[in-house]
Design brief:
- This protein is mainly α.
- The chain has one domain (2-315).
- Helix content is 72%, strand content 2%.
- The chain has helices at 2-15, 23-39, 44-72, 74-88, 95-107, 110-121, 130-156, 161-180, 191-200, 202-215, 218-228, 235-248, 286-315, and strands spanning 260-262, 268-270.
- A two-stranded antiparallel ribbon has the order 1-2.
- The longest helix has 30 residues, at 286-315.
Length: 316
């Protein structure tokens, strides 16, 4: 049932992708803002309490409905699984940004490419050249694919899968909303959301990096992972981007010794700008965006194949 739930959800999303501003996400965001307003007194333990309130308020009802569906009918549980996976996945949620950047770069329209990237990451990209824009789009797409697809897959495979998938997506959202956003970066309130998401994403991030290596250039991906992942302040982002960059032969995270690169939360992360050995690979070009798309699709097929084999093993 797990394999079919993910398959049907992916098919539905291909036909009807959720908008970023859909009512479900909007209500969840408003709820998180209200809880922050109620609980934020400037201390880390207040953030811990708020995190459990928000995550518990969404995961516990999801688990309860799943249990009731199982008691009522396996088909009802299957439908509930599809609904939850559809709501938590984001395979095509941001694809229009990526497509617009790719088209602008191919046409040589640097201004449009910078504008689309800036809208995607909510950041001023007016000083970026074509290489920086291509690099930023590749980095953002790899991180987004992990957090919106592969991380959800991993947690959906856990017991009470729908509730675990909701927990992962909420933990990822709160780590961005309460820890990585500009207004919250200096506050202690978001430290717990950031630290707990690190552990929640510890295994999924490494599995995504392994998948990138398997379906791409394995040797370069593993080499880059081992030697260059520590260039990012965020260890998990470093693992995914170093492996992904090595897999497609593109140098990521080194915008000509600039101090900032893009991260998945539409903010910036410091990069080690010391004079060290250059990461293997070529500078990002418009062609690199197509390579990134191929890498993500191959990784998705690998996950689905492994899940299908696991499902067969369970049935037998």
């Amino acid at each position: 049932m797990t394999f079919l739930s993910i398959l049907f959800a992916l098919l539905i999303e291909q036909l009807k992708p959720l908008r970023v501003d859909n009512p479900v996400y909007t209500q969840v965001q408003h709820f998180a803002i209200k809880v922050e307003t109620w609980c934020n007194a400037g201390k880390a333990h207040h953030g811990r309490m708020a995190w459990f309130i928000v995550v518990g308020a969404l995961t516990l009802p999801t688990a309860l409905v799943y249990w009731l569906c199982l008691r009522f009918s396996p088909f009802a549980a299957f439908v509930w699984n599809v609904v939850i996976v559809y709501l938590t996945l984001g395979f095509r949620r941001y694809s229009h940004y990526f497509t617009s950047i790719q088209a602008a770069l191919s046409a040589g329209d640097e201004e449009a490419a910078r504008r689309h990237l800036g809208e995607w990451i909510n950041k001023d990209c007016s000083s970026y050249d074509m290489t920086d824009v291509a690099r930023g789009a590749v980095e953002r797409s790899l991180i987004a694919s992990h957090r919106n697809v592969f991380g959800v897959f991993f947690w959906f495979l856990m017991p009470v899968g729908p509730a675990c998938a909701v927990m992962y997506r909420m933990a990822e959202f709160l780590s961005r909303e309460w820890a990585e956003s500009e207004r919250m970066q200096e506050e202690e309130f978001g430290k717990f959301a950031q630290s707990i998401f690190y552990w929640i994403d510890w295994i999924p991030a490494r599995l995504t990096a392994v998948a990138f290596a398997v379906v791409g250039n394995f040797e370069d991906a593993i080499y880059s992972w081992r030697n260059y992942a520590n260039r990012w302040n965020d260890e998990l982002i470093g693992i995914i981007l170093s492996s992904g960059g090595g897999a497609i032969g593109v140098r990521l995270g080194e915008p000509e010794n600039k101090a900032l690169i893009l991260n998945a939360g539409a903010s910036a992360v410091d990069v080690d700008s010391m004079e060290i050995e250059s990461q293997p690979g070529m500078e990002a070009t418009p062609r690199a965006l197509q390579s990134a798309v191929g890498l993500v699709w191959r990784s998705l097929l690998l996950w689905m194949l492994l899940l299908l084999l696991l499902s067969f093993a369970v049935w037998l």
